Inverse folding.
């Protein structure tokens, strides 16, 4: 068989497999199906996993019932790297989904007071009913638009912001705007860190990186093949240096059987010289 023909057939099979994956409905028994002004909200159970979807195809959030605090998706693990730079007294999660970040923070730093902001009341209700979340002294669930909440919040009052704003597969574009970054920066404490979950590398454009680079002392990128790109921004010096970060990362990763080792190795520091290349 000619090489060109072989390459074409292999490419066709790869594309076919990808399309079948993208168009296959999420597996599992339906536990809940509802709809609000923003679209569907679906909960499914498949073996040990419970999944939240905003359509019939893509998984928005996933929880392992036997270990609900451990993050399933790689990008969630990458976002949690921001919590390893310093102990956090307060944290702000923008975009609740199924609450993966909230549950993980509660286990990693039980004394941290976490506020989760979600614009959809139905998503908050579903998270409480099906994903082990509830309002209590160390966790407050707030129904609001993320940017509007930041505008009204007290400045320099949060040690950690984890931004994960999505409409189904589509990222909320406010998350990459200069105004949003500045609002987050204003809300963070002196040693605070920001984590942004970007849908793909193409969403990490030069303008966004430059805004982050001008606003924060240190910026890191964490990318994975066929997955999201996570950006971390803060001040390493204010948190005691990278040695302290890696020590905390090792402690956290050991608790989750090495779950954060791979994402920690994927960190790339953004500098003036590599801004366009990250």
């Amino acid at each position: 068989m000619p090489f060109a023909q072989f390459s074409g057939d292999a490419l066709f099979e790869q594309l076919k497999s990808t399309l079948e994956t993208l168009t296959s409905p999420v597996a599992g028994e339906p536990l809940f199906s509802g709809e609000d002004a923003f679209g569907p909200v679906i909960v499914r159970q498949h073996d040990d996993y419970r999944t939240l979807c905003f359509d019939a195809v893509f998984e928005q959030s996933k929880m392992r019932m036997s270990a609900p605090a451990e993050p399933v998706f790689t990008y969630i693990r990458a976002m949690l790297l921001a919590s390893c730079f310093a102990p956090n007294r307060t944290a702000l999660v923008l975009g609740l989904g199924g609450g993966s970040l909230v549950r993980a923070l509660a286990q990693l730093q039980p004394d941290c007071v976490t506020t989760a902001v979600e614009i959809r009341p139905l998503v908050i209700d579903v998270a409480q009913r099906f994903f082990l979340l509830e309002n209590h002294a160390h966790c407050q669930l707030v129904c609001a638009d993320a940017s509007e909440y930041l505008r009204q919040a007290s400045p320099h009052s949060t040690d950690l912001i984890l931004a994960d704003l999505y409409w189904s597969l589509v990222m909320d574009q406010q998350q990459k705007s200069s105004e949003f970054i500045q609002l987050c920066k204003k809300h963070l404490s002196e040693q605070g860190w920001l984590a942004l979950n970007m849908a793909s590398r193409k969403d990490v454009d030069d303008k966004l990186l430059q805004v982050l680079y001008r606003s924060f002392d240190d910026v890191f990128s964490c990318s994975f093949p066929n997955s999201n790109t996570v950006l971390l921004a803060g001040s390493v010096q204010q948190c005691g240096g990278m040695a302290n970060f890696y020590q905390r990362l090792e402690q956290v990763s050991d608790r989750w059987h090495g779950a954060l080792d791979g994402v920690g190795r994927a960190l790339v520091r953004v500098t003036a010289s590599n801004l366009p290349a990250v």
About this structure: The first strand starts at residue 29 and ends at 36.
